[in-house]
UniProtKB/TrEMBL annotation:
It is found in: Endoplasmic reticulum membrane; Microsome membrane. Pfam families: p450. May be involved in the metabolism of insect hormones and in the breakdown of synthetic insecticides. One of its GO terms (cellular component) is endoplasmic reticulum membrane. Heme binds at C150. GO terms for molecular function: heme binding; iron ion binding; monooxygenase activity; oxidoreductase activity, acting on paired donors, with incorporation or reduction of molecular oxygen. It comes from Dendroctonus ponderosae. Keywords: Endoplasmic reticulum, Heme, Iron, Membrane, Metal-binding, Microsome, Monooxygenase, Oxidoreductase. It is a peripheral membrane protein. SUPFAM superfamilies: Cytochrome P450. Its cofactor is heme. PROSITE patterns: CYTOCHROME_P450. This is Cytochrome P450. Belongs to the cytochrome P450 family.
């Protein structure tokens, strides 16, 4: 139990901070989205008298923004799986042999214009009907899928939500002289991250 608890914090620190940083960056770039999300936050505060777990879970546009961040900035650039039996790829002579390690590039899935038109654009509206995306196929898998799906996905999402709600209810976002545009990724990092960080200025509301 202790090892599992430690795993949540060890694996959840960089992933949560990365998702939080990239979301804040996109909300700075897209001011109208920042204002829309802040309005949802304040409306929810009135209903629940401040930050409440059930209130955070009700924020649909917050969910949409985080989902779009995880599409555009997948925390892990690839998924790795081990083939359990020989598998012949349909309409091909290719056979993936048993025990072969397979690496699935997340960017190839999440930036496929067939499923996500204008994939370079940050558009939370793609996830207005998230159930439809989840049910249509495995082209959006920020936490993996199947029996080895990330066990900390709910914990991580809740941490990101509370972080965003806490910050956006107190501050508006502005650029600094070091804020990159566009973001360039660190090529040697295992977990997706900017090569110069994501410096932003937090201005009290």
């Amino acid at each position: 139990m202790m090892a599992q608890a430690l795993q949540f914090f060890a694996a959840g620190f960089e992933t949560v901070s990365g998702t939080l940083s990239f979301t804040l960056y996109e909300l700075w770039v897209n001011l109208q989205l920042q204002e829309r999300l802040r309005t949802e936050i304040f409306d929810n505060f009135e209903k629940h008298d401040g930050i409440a777990c059930e209130g955070v879970s009700e924020m649909k546009f917050l969910d949409m923004c985080i989902a779009e961040t995880l599409r555009k900035y997948p925390v892990l650039p690839f998924l790795d799986r081990t083939c359990l039996r020989d598998y012949k790829v349909e309409n091909s002579d290719l056979v993936i042999e048993k025990d072969l390690d397979v690496y699935i590039p997340m960017f190839a899935l999440h930036y496929n214009p067939e499923f996500f038109p204008q994939p370079q654009k940050y558009d939370p509206q793609r996830f207005a009907d998230k159930c439809k995306i989840n049910n249509e196929g495995l082209y959006y898998v920020p936490f993996g899928d199947g029996p080895r799906i990330c066990i900390g996905n709910r914990f991580g999402l809740l941490a990101v939500k509370i972080g965003l709600v806490s910050l956006l209810s107190r501050y508006k976002l502005e650029a600094t002289s070091q804020t990159p545009r566009p973001i360039k990724f660190e090529p040697k990092a295992l977990i997706l991250q900017s090569n110069v960080g994501v410096p932003l200025k937090f201005v009290p509301i």
